[in-house]
Specification:
With 225 residues, this protein is mainly α. The protein has one domain: Methane Monooxygenase Hydroxylase, Chain G, domain 1 (Up-down Bundle). The protein is 79% helix and 0% strand. It has 8 helices and no strands. Helix 2 packs antiparallel against helix 3. The longest helix is centred in the C-terminal third of the chain and has 34 residues. It is globular. The protein starts with 15 loop residues before the first helix and ends with a helix.
Length: 225
Amino acid sequence: MPTSPLASLFGRSPFTAPQQHMRVVTECAQHVTPLIDALCAEDQAKLEHHAKEIFRLEEEADKVKHDIRKHLPRSLFMPVDRRDLLEVLHAQDSIADTAQDIAGILLERDMTPHDEFVEPLKALVAACVGVVDQGLAAIEMLDELVEVGFRGRTADRVDELLDGVNTAEDHTDELGMQLARALFQREDDLKPVTVMLWYRQIEWIGDLADHAEKVANRLRLIIAR
């Protein structure tokens, strides 16, 4: 039976395969930005293109995730617990799943936002995808962190990145609440189901940042051990 390319990665670093997964997950989340841009511009062709890319990348992330789980050793010759890596993987996977949820509902229903929602909506998306990008930047440094024994300037730099993820996620909460308030101010002019679905979308967009923060928090626990 041929060996999966991921099967040999864990001997070099316990983080190499999860890093590969996070790269796919981040690319998936990044398509939410042009997806929302297309929605606001009422460009259905571009919306469908980016939705399909999100579906494709979510499926790719699932394949990488299953391959990692299949080949992750029961014991690692590294100061990293197997369960910790699996929890990082789960949090990362939730980012791609959420991006798929966002895209799926936009394909099923016309949800073109009112003009006053456009800028705060784009600001929320940009901030939340930015938190995912920061999460990727942090996990990309973990190989170097392993090499220095989780100490020194590299550890301080990673800790700063993780602090940045937490701070940025707090900002997305504020943006999400502002957009929700704007939505509720117009709820008398909208169909109840439209209000409900937009509120759900605001939650899902915010969840991109929330799941990225969970990745950061799990990494912080790994480093602290």
